[in-house]
Amino acid sequence: MDTDLSSQDRKDLDKFIKFFALKTVQVIVQARLGEKICTRSSSSPTGSDWFNLAIKDIPEVTHEAKKALAGQLPAVGRSMCVEISLKTSEGDSMELEIWCLEMNEKCDKEIKVSYTVYNRLSLLLKSLLAITRVTPAYRLSRKQGHEYVILYRIYFGEVQLSGLGEGFQTVRVGTVGTPVGTITLSCAYRINLAFMSTRQFERTPPIMGIIIDHFVDRPYPSSSPMHPCNYRAGEDNGAVYPSVEDSQEVCTTSFSTSPPSQLSSSRLSYQPAALGVGSADMGYPVLFAGGLNAAHPHQLICPGKEGGVPPVPSQPAHGTQADQERTCTPLDGVHYSAATPSSSEDTETVSNSSEGKCGSPHDLLETIFIRKVGAFVNKPINQVTMANLDIPFAMFAPKNVELEDNDPMVNPPDSPETESPLQGSLHSEGSSGSSAGNTHDDFVMIDFKPAFSKDDILPMDLGTFYREFQNPPQLSSLSIDIGAQSMAEDLDSLPEKLAVHEKNVKEFDAFVETLQ
Amino acid sequence: MNCRAEVLEVSVEGRQVEEAMLAVLHTVLLHRSTGKFHYKKEGTYSIGTVGTQDVDCDFIDFAYVRVSSEELDRALRKAVGEFKDALRSSGSDGMGQISLEFYQKKKSRWPFSDECIPWELWTIKVNVVNLANEQERQICREKSEVDNVFDTSLKDVQPYLYKISYQITDTLGTSVTTTMRRLIKDTLAL
Lengths: 516, 190
Known about the structure:
Chain A: It is found in: Cytoplasm, Cytosol; Preautophagosomal structure. The complex is a heterodimer. Chain A contains twelve helices and ten strands. By secondary structure, chain A is α+β, with helices and mostly antiparallel strands. Chain A has a domain at 7-196: HORMA domain (Cell Cycle, Spindle Assembly Checkpoint Protein, Chain A, 2-Layer Sandwich). A six-stranded antiparallel β-sheet of chain A has the order 4-5-2-1-3-6. In chain A, strands 7-8-10-9 form a four-stranded mixed β-sheet, with no helix packed on it. In chain A, helix 7 (347-354) links the parallel strand 9 (335-336) and strand 10 (366-371). The longest helix of chain A has 25 residues, at 7-31. The relative contact order of chain A is 0.09. Chain B is 35% helix and 28% strand. In chain B, helix 1 packs antiparallel against helix 2. Chains A and B meet through helix 3 and helix 4 of A and helix 1, strand 4 and strand 5 of B.
């Protein structure tokens, strides 16, 4: 006997199935975030706790699920699938699981939509909660982080199981009969974890071996973009979902002072063309930042460097430096390290920066300034000197010595515990300034284009200024020879000066009072 | 007795007993718990929300989901703790079983006390093994895979695991004798 569903029941059933699909996606994606989920039981329900289960809604995931469903519901031949895949930092990816929400034709006309179907859907969600922790991908997702990330993709339509490799296994989470069909939730998961890299190589290799957690387009006809299963779960980020990052170059620096969990998203900061790049002899300085507890900051190994020595990390754009300093100061023990120039054989610093800094102390924030060479550079890198780079702080450089070796920004003073690297280097500038005996490298003349200036309209006000004041004479008091003398003189004259000042104490006091 | 019954068998090391039992029991109870009923006026009620929590096991490479209720957790831990102690102190070959029964109370008139009618019974049979090192553990793990799917007890063939059960349905007769017999049988079976 065919008992037609009343329109109210039909509406309810559609609503239940729709929200069930959305909650299913939430449960699956949250189970692959890599962190432990914890929600509270509450005796007084709110309107948003569907199926009497406290399942948080991540807005981005809901958005993606709704987009995939596009107003439809799972039906015969139209299943909702959540694909979980793994992507390594080298770009290899591998499908791990496909969770399918299917509907078949076997109807249960006798069942009551409210609330038998509702309760059974709730039970099915509980089963899903339990089973998502049992499949092999759960353990992989808990360990995601630097080496690989877990991505998810939602699609609607035919189930595609071909990417799971041979011998994949299936587990059925459960079924719920409804008057319009039987809902089945199942998972097909990969057993063979060997990489199939021939098929899954990315088009572009990742930059410098860091993990790309941006959206990737899959070459499937019915494809939808992959999304990372991790996001920075800071307290203030409750409702924020990861923004789409289209390219590495527009990421902003973000230092997280909280200990990075597996979800830490250390981001790449890019400051292109901050310096004069006239004939593109120079590449872009790249700023790298790692989390506080990172075993190693994401190290940048410059391609094309010669002799295994990274090129001189001269002073990058002023803005970057200030940025760096701002975020550095709250942290204790900032160790400002940089590679020494090519001419010196300071292997210690070099190896420090060129290899992964696995040995670095965990409580230091390491920042490396490394210059990346542009594609069409003619000259070998180690011929470049600071003067050619036309860095903003070039004016601090002593006139005679033009080597990066003496650039205080490059070669920091020996006190590694300086709170403010900028300050430390300024003080030491004088001492290193007059140390002679450094060989000059060949100069490469390039046209000077200062940062932030437009040189096509007005003829280089800023540039002219820079050039004029680029090499000022050294402060006499800071040069050692004269300095030593004057120091002695100063010391001698001190008692006299003190006596004079003491006599005029009353005047000084009066002056101070006028100020107050 | 129209009671659904499930029997699970596990072989674990001594230190894994507690976590294994908790994992199974919590998972079952997750499915068998609803939110708190909240009675409103006019005879309606609303159902509260059940929160969940991931629990990582220390001695097993496993994680399970449990209901976010400290009281329930404490009650389960207490029971499992007793079972574990009993198992340890029994001195036998390390075999035991713990069961979780869901029942319904049925009020009876005096002099009969309330009836507890079980409607679902979960039994977990535990076999405590002592594995000397990792290699043995690995062998144990691999071997058990087959045992989960096939019945390896037969000498010549290996069918899939199967269970045959039968049930004699009550005829129309509800005489006093049959009812009494049933009552006694049920009481004894409990």
